[in-house]
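User: Hey, my collaborator sent me this sequence without any context and asked if I could get a structure. I don't really work with proteins. Can you help?
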Amino acid sequence: MTEARTGFPRTNWSGNYTYSTDRFFEPATIDDVRDAVRSVPKLKALGTRHCFNGIADSTVAQLSTRLLADFELDPISRTVRIGSGVRYGELAQHLHRAGFALHNMASLPHISVGGAVATATHGSGLGNGNLATAVQAIEVVTADGTPRTFSRQTDPDLFAGTIVHLGALGIATHLTLTVEPAYAMVQTVYEDLPFSTLESNLRDVMSAGYSVSLFTDWEGSRARQVWVKQRADSPKLVGEISGDKFQSAPTFFGATRAATPLHPLTGAPVAACTEQGEEVGPWFERLPHFRLDFTPSFGEELQSEYFVPFDRAFEAVRAVETLRDSITPILLITELRAIAADDLWLSPQFGQPTFALHFTWKPLWDAVLAVLPRIEAVLEPFGARPHWGKVFTVPGRQIRQLYPRMDDFIRLASQLDPGGKFRNEYLDRLLGA
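Assistant: No problem. I've predicted the 3D structure and written it out in structure-token form, which is a compact way to encode the shape of the chain:
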């Protein structure tokens, strides 16, 4: 049996959240996970600690998935089975060497696959589902230590409820993902896109690349930067490819091509960002914003994110813009992205394509908590769903009303964990005590 130890990092990645226990397990096998689950009355899984709230917290014990890092590629079925502790950047390198790729990646390649899937972390692209949509099967150790596998093929009625699971169903040990042939990409950054352009061109802007991100500080009614990531095999390239070189269009919906590489945060080291400009390169070196071997962003920060229906996106931007004077003094940057619809019960994209408004805040906890209810109030008419792993103040009862299959998920969680072994304060507040 794996023994609980002490001494692992007590805080999340950004340092804003301190966990309520220093007792943790670090299993390397499914049997180790089963032993750990059976040995304690309460337990929560901990991945790469990139959530900004108490979703992974426990007052009794935590289980690190770091050593659950095996990798098994099936090139015939175009799937890969991996341990839930594998980080996306590491998985991408394995896949690329074998000639395969993922359909999407988040801005940070540093996050674990298990944690990203559990919280519906998303990446960008109007035609791209969030990261969880690549999952074809998930393996979970439930409250009594029994391993269960749920797959899209064998469990069509329950599968969509098990993927974005918030840690409520058990300890996810392995996932099977769909992969595709490797592809090349280019990335171009443009500056100063007027918000007025989005009123009649939002869909064209967000679908002009495989993945498009708008960065704004809410000053000047514009996106300060536009990151356009394009597949080299796209028939609608904004620019021209010749060999391994790319000549991008000089303008983009009124924005101007940046003369030098840029970081989304003014003053941050550009070396941390993925390649921009003329070079055609591998998908995993363009899809994320940041390189795996650099510390992403600033580190000491807070993050919040809200998802609105894509067809209400421009209205939502204008609504948030009314709070500019309260937002900008405590803001590092806001990123605006689009994500395709899916059928996963607790995905913010369930049943509708969405537009994401992501706020990276200065580490000013009290000031951020003061402004969040105001942002949430102006976004409430749009049915905004908060990101499960970020900071938000929306009451659980309100969130439950935003998900048509929430009651089904609560019943599923009760069936797999009748004693509440995987419950914590976060889940009690969200799902109801």
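In plain terms: The chain has a mean pLDDT of 95. You can pass these tokens on to your collaborator as they are.
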